Amino acid sequence: MLKDKYTAVWVSHSSISDYLKCPRAYFLKNVYRDPKTHRKISLMQPSLALGQVVHEVIESLSTLPVERRLSTPLIDTFEHTWLRVAGKNGGFMSSEMEEKYKARGREMIERVSNHPGPLLQKAIKIRHELPHFWLSEEDGIILCGKIDWLSYDEATDSVQIIDFKTGKFDEDPDSLQLPIYYLLAKKCQAKPVSGVSYWYIDRDIEPVAMELPSEEESISRVMEPAKRVSLARKLERFVCQYKDGCASCRPLESIIAGKATLIGVNDFGQDLYVID
To answer: Disulfide check for 27: which of 142, 178, 238, 240 has CB 3.0–4.6 Å away?
Structure first.
């Protein structure tokens, strides 16, 4: 197949996860465009708002020199960043609900501020705005995604992947997140990858090291679902396995049915909705 990134099927951890949960939900989030605005649709929910703000506050540190990373209190940055998701913009239906989530966010930021650990080490930023590479030229599939943090280890001249977690539950052991991030880090920057970890900042003061996957194993695990996504797009077949829809696609169907409120356009150029 001729290499053409504009006609290729782009897959990421989130889009593959969408498809594995429900092909219909994948279609509504990644393919469908509103016929009036010609934009994709996105649903804002409180947990998503919380995760976005906490990630943005922490990840913004990687662009600063190490000695300046905590010169401005992180909690101040958090309070300022939160304004963008305040009220209905974050899917909060009451001030009590918003304060509950905001309090969790404050606790996470305070935990990181008191135990910055790897955040005070050198970090590497991948130059691409959206890191990507050809997972399969033959099948026309490009793998893409953004890695939360690449910590640089001067002793080994290598990088370690850190993924920040703001939810209450551990990542599924069968998740494709680490294999995908490992491949992106290996293919999109020059340093070898020497470690991967999750940082559950809702409870832990430091990252939890995970087993480093091999390139062969990672490609093998990612390729099969990526090809399933590619085939579904070619066949234009995206069907939920349940007659009345599932928890993944029903909220998005509400948007299509006109039962959600449009609150604006997000940073990705998608129409952003909330459900009352």
So the answer is: 238
